[in-house]
Amino acid sequence: MARTGRRKRDRLRWSKLYTFSCLRPSVQLETSDTGTASLGGPGFSRVVHCNQPRLHYKKPLKYPTNYISTTKYNIITFLPKAIFEQFRRVANLYFLMAAILSLTPVAPFSAVSMIAPLAFVVGLSMAKEALEDWRRFMQDMKVNSRKVSVHRSDGLFGYKHWEKLRVGDVVKVEKDQFFPADLLLLSSSYEDGICYVETMNLDGETNLKVKRSLEVTLPLDEDEVFKEFKGVIRCEDPNPSLYTFVGNLEYERQVYAIDPTQILLRDSKLRNTQYIYGVVIFTGHDTKVMQNSTDSPSKRSRIERQMDKIIYILFSVLVLISLISSIGFAVNIKYYMHNWWFLQPDDKDNKLYNPKTPAISGLIHLITALILYGYLIPISLYVSIEVVKVVQAMFINQDLQMYDEEAGIPAQARTSNLNEELGQVHTILSDKTGTLTCNQMDFLKCSIAGISYGVGSSEVEMAAAKHMASHSDFGTSEIEIEPSTPITPVFERVRKSTIKGFSFEDDRLMNGNWTQEQNSGTILMFFRILALCHTAIPELNEETGGFNYEAESPDEGAFLVAAREFGFEFCKRTQSSVFIRERYSPSEGPIEREFKVLNLLEFNSKRKRMSVIVRDESGQTLLLCKGADSIIFERLSKNGRTYEVDTTRHLSEYGEAGLRTLALSYRVLEESEYLAWNAEFVKAKTSIGADREAQLERVAELMEKDLILVGATAVEDKLQRGVPQCIDRLAQAGLKIWVLTGDKMETAINIGYACSLLRQGMKQICLSTAPSDPTQQDAKKIFLLSEQAAKENLSLQMSNALQMVKLERDPHAAFALIIDGKGLTHALQDDLKDRFLELAIECASVICCRVSPKQKALVTRLVKEGVGKTTLAIGDGANDVGMIQEADIGVGISGVEGMQAVMASDFSISQFRFLERLLVVHGHWCYKRIAQMICYFFYKNIAFGLTIFYFEAYAAFSGQSVYDDWYMLLFNVVLTSLPVISLGAFEQDVSSEVCLQFPALYQQGPKNLFFDWSRILGWMGNGLYSSLVLYFLSISIFSSESAFRSDGQTADMAAVGTAMFTCIIWAVNIQIALTMSHFTWIQHLCVWGSIASWYLFLVAYGTASPLISGNAFQILVEALGPASIYWISTLLIAVVCNLPYLVHISYQRACNPLDHHVIQEIKYYKKDLEDHDMWKRERSKARQKTKIGFTARVEAKIRHLKGRLHKKLPSITIQTVS
């Protein structure tokens, strides 16, 4: 493992170039320093012995291992926690009580018949929970089993599994590997200890972060030197703050301050650096990323929680009729028992039939009644729901429309408990990087010297052009597109460019044609700024002979690719120079030019710009600057504003097209001016004190002024395939969409435009605790702004914004709320969070920037609890785990960057676009299936269970059942189970294509149209009505006063019970057939097969020995079959039972149809094929009114163009008259 000491890269000392990112703590602390003393106090008690991990095996330094677990259970907690989960269900509690009571002598059924079903239901559910948690465990093992190079002893390194790491271990992490724990950076492959870190998994930012080791640890850059390395780190205790760190390193009898620039966090990745050495500070669940995670929650769907309330109601009814039954039994025992001499018990002391103690008899009979009427509460409901949900999850897993062919990843329902919840989502909270975007920038357009170049179109423009071209009442003949802002119908062709990062198309600049342009000198400067103003490193690609660029941000990479394609190839960087190969025409060879890099003022979120000072081969000194247009424009000189008006217009057009823009400018420096400035700059850079950064800002301001505008760039942040269309459909389905990102505000806003969450004309409400323009304020005043003042400032901003929104009278006005992490810290406090939520709900879209993982979870909780409706969180990184677990439904994107989000999720998909089908199709189907299934279950059990109660009253509350025990056992298990399972698994009100064409159908779920109390009570009422018809018509027809057979025989209890049960089987199965909208052979087999199985059972049961069949011996073949009244009454009663439902559904379809009724009728009569205009009109009606998405954006554009057209009409009329 030993290295030769030879470096693979040039010896670049980046710290001499970087101005702000690499501020090294220059103050060496003494041991008596007050800062050191405070590190021993509460919250700062951690002590790490570097390269001595064995010292941390015992208390008080016994720290956790690096093993992590995201499972809900373990071997010890599985049984108690899983049993608790099962008995959170009210029905299971009831059946547990019934099973216990069945052990008493007064139980009407055997104990086994009560205990076995309960054990089966609970056992099946627990097995499903165990299987799902096992999958989480296996994914945890994949992470824990990763390997990293660790110092073993005597300067020798070897590989260890991540889970074996201990605090104090020295590790060597190589390029493109994840950091296995939180580390202190000791050294890197660069001479001055610089390394680049990608933190996308932590905060969503794609820009690489620059980290730098302490100067004292720079010599620790070989394997062998760690043989004698020892040191002590005293630092803060584990906490979730990603952006802070307080600690000291005691090394070689000196104490050095450690700050966040030396800390490498777990789950971030090493980039653009061959290797680093680091020492482990925090492991496992002590790491900051794990501190930001939450325990795996136990989630239950809203329908399941509402089902508990229905169980309470039915249990109340059960107790009520049981009390009536017990009272009736006590009354009969007291007043009529002495007349029933033929029923006298052999045991004279029998308390159940003792007329002297009727109260005791009634209480004992209450136990019998509670068990006997238990059919009101269906235990098979939970089994059926579990089976149905597993089948639904299989359909989700096997849906080819959600299968990513490129990655080979299908959708996965990691839990089936929340299938129906997918159909009731109200708000989606989405991560940005890796979820909405694929982190790829394409150079698409540019503005140089006031002229716009680039004829290609962005994804936003493509969709807008396509939508406008197909708009039925606003064709291209009505719109006059200005030549300066062409909308190319690119949806009819494929982009020619196949170069990654470069989709520019315009022959005026390509192949050296730019030299023929009028402003060729300005164009030359534009290209040079692209090629020089960056911090990237070129790497020779041996296969192609060209260069790959490792840049801090995707934007920089796209600029360098563009510069290369324009003929300005960045080919080499040394410590002090950048080399560019310039080619002015294809026929000429390239000319290599050297530019001396004098200073680098890098980009950060506060400066919003980057500058580089270079000296060209002629000795001319230039300041090259790129940045946000608002920042650059205010720094232009009077002579540098020549192209400002045209460039501003182009920037607006690029923004409208959803592109990310930067303005480019330069300044020629006199040598004396530069030397004077540089002296002051060096003085500020080497100063000691808390205001060093403020001094650097001030000095940078002195140089970055009097600029000359060159032009602007427009790059497209490539969204994941289908993201804009998906967001548009979800918006049309009536869903609210929030974006929570750790990225900076400008980036998030650009993405908001790209996916049409924002658009031109939308009023943006930006909430922040910082002053509107920090660059114009004294830095000390900003930092001294008290927390209370910041909170009051934010409260005032929210109040003003809320008032503005409420006073808005324009029906088309749309508001977007944008808030940063610091503002969110105050907005989430108890006294402000309700006002913040009220404002957010009033806005069409909400974007939260610079958000920590903990804040993502807190925002999700606020929306979930404040709105009171179903929330869905979707993300792809470890920073999204908190919100995924906090939301009602968590969806993980199984992308390239780890599997943490997937491991914590309820559902996983490979791309954001599949969310549309998951919700609009599967969510809609699952919600309606489960809702109808549960309602039907309660209907059939009420219809069946109440007939037992009616007969009890008829039989003097004796506890005698009218039905044979086998009938009652088979009712839920065989005779009515398969139809209801087929309903829950296969029912479709409309096809998947129609679901996608009519997204507003989805609103039936959030509005809970199929499981509200009116629907539930309606089904219960239907069950009550059916029970009355079934019982009283059957008793009337088969009364003992009239014969039911031609030979004069009257019906006994077995005949009445069997006939009544036959009517029940027919009635409930016809009812479910009427409920179904979509029939396949499976449904037909289940429904009609269930009825047929009843008759087959009767024949088989009747042919069994009388010792088994009892009074049912040959009951169908000899008793009921030959009697025509049996068949007639079955038909009559089944029809009468279902007549009210048939009338209700006919009236509803004719007079007050729901959306899916209309669509079903159109499809049935094939009107969608015969009348395309009508079908298109119905589709446009079926969109929820929304102010976000492509559709809303195009409609706003059309309104704008129509307004301009109407303004032109009067002048056109005047010209015609004259």
UniProtKB/TrEMBL annotation:
Tree of life domain: Eukaryota
Protein name: Phospholipid-transporting ATPase
Assigned GO CC terms: plasma membrane
Binding site for Mg(2+): 431, 433, 876, 880
InterPro entries the UniProt entry points to: ATPase_P-typ_cyto_dom_N (IPR023299), ATPase_P-typ_P_site (IPR018303), ATPase_P-typ_TM_dom_sf (IPR023298), ATPase_P-typ_transduc_dom_A_sf (IPR008250), HAD-like_sf (IPR036412), HAD_sf (IPR023214), P-type_ATPase_IV (IPR006539), P-type_ATPase_N (IPR032631)
Transmembrane segments: 90-108, 114-131, 310-337, 357-376, 937-957, 969-986, 1016-1038, 1053-1073, 1085-1104, 1124-1143
NCBIfam families: ATPase-Plipid, ATPase_P-type
Annotated family: Belongs to the cation transport ATPase (P-type) (TC 3.A.3) family. Type IV subfamily.
